[in-house]
Amino acid sequence: MATQITNYQCPACTGPLHFVGESGRLECDYCGSSFDIAEIEAFYAEKEAKAAEAAQKQKKTEAAQKSAEAEDQQTAADGSNWDTSGLSENWGADADSMKTYCCPSCGAELICDATTAATSCPYCGNPSVIPGQFTGILKPDFVLPFKLSKEDAIKALKKHYLKKPLLPSTFSKANHLEEIKGVYVPFWMYDGEASGSVEFHATTVHKYTSGDYEITETSHYDVRRAGSIAFEKIPVDASSKMPDDYMDSIEPFNYADLKPFSTAYLPGFLADKYDVSVEDSRNRADRRCAGSLVNALEKTVTGYASCNETGRSIQLKRGKVHYALLPVWILNTRWEGKDFLFAMNGQTKKLSGTPPLSWAKLLTFCAALMVVIGVLGGLIGGSL
Question: Which residue in 30, 61, 96, 223 is deepest, having the highest Cβ count within 10 Å?
Answer without folding.
Answer: 223
